[in-house]
Amino acid sequence: MPRDSLVVLIDALKIPARRTEYSPTESAVSPFHAEPAQYDMPNAKKLRVSFFLAGALLFNAAAVFAFGRIAEEILEGDTQHFDSYLRAAIHGLATPGLTSLMQGFSFVGSVSMVVVLVLLSICWFVYFRRIRAAGLLAITMLGAAVLEISLKLAFHRPRPVTFVGPTPSSYSFPSGHAVDALCFYGVLAAILSTRMRERLAKVLIWAAAVFLTAMIGFSRIYLGVHYPSDVVGGYFAAAIWVSTVAFIDKMFTDGEWAKGCSRPNLSAEGG
Question: What is d(CA 138, CA 30) in angstroms, rounded to the nearest whole number?
Fold first, then answer.
């Protein structure tokens, strides 16, 4: 083969490689400048956000349906048999030691204790510059207080005859302890678990939150200051509010970021 022909063939084989090289003089939107991961990661993020939002909506709808059924049963007086049976069964477990323990759990879920814990948590978050977490917790608990008071005034359900201590002066449905416990300990667990890398630590945080929330609600039934339906209704009301806050928070943070990542960022570094 003539030498000139061989040179032409070699130059022709080099053309594809030259076209894939990035030159500073090329446009910043050249697709050859972007790494493949820049296309994949935003799509994965958007998918996770979409699943979260869909799950929050489904959970919220289920909680609304469950709360509506309980509220309807209470207004029609159909929970009396359920409430009376469960109250009597739980009261049958009463012992002096267990009563003291339940009073302790009830105090942990009291308004005064929750207010102190919320303020301490917000100060702790602000100190470590976690402003979003502090704001999320503050909004959740303020909304929980408004929700609790509004529902109590709307239903006007009288308190049952208490087993231990005086009868509270506020209305019975829903249980404020149940609403506050699920909102505070649930949101706090969600915030703290996001900072944990170890799966065991996340499991322990959520287990502690579930245990405290359940025992606070149980203590209110044990002490006789609430009907069981008050506690269950309080949990569902809190679940509605927490899932709503989580949905809005995701929409205005990760959701907006995902919209901005519908196309890859191809701008040159340091430009």
Answer: 46
Tokens of 267: 């701008």
User: Other CB atoms closer than 10 Å to residue 90's CB: what's the count?
Assistant: 17
Query: Is 97 part of any domain?
Result: yes
261, burial (CB in 10 Å: exposed 0-12, middle 13-18, buried 19+): middle
In a domain, 74, yes or no: yes
* Tally of domains in the chain: 1
Higher local confidence (pLDDT), 98 or 10: 98
Digit-coded pLDDT (tens) for 210-219: 999 999 999 9
Residue 50 falls within a domain, yes or no? no
Nearest to 216 by CA among 184, 245, 239: 184
| pTM of the full structure | 0.74
- 3-state class (DSSP) for residue 231: helix
Asked if the structure places residue 158 within a domain, the reply is yes
- In tens, the pLDDT along 21-41 reads 444 444 444 333 344 444 444
Do 60 and 251 meet the contact criterion of CB atoms below 8 Å apart? Answer: no
Can you read off the two tokens belonging to residue 169? Answer: 């002066």
Provide the 10 A C-beta neighbour count for residue 186.
21
Read out DSSP for 173-208? Answer: SS-HHHHHHHHHHHHHHHHHHTT--SHHHHHHHHHH
Q: Comparing C-alpha atoms, which of 7, 33, 31 is closest to residue 22?
A: 33
DSSP state for residue 32 in the 8-state scheme: G
Distance separating alpha carbons of residues 99 and 193, to the nearest angstrom: 32
- What range defines the domain where residue 209 resides? 56-260
Nearest Cα to Cα of residue 108 among 27, 190, 195, 184 = 184
Assigned token pair, 145: 């207080």
- So what's the pLDDT on residue 199? 86
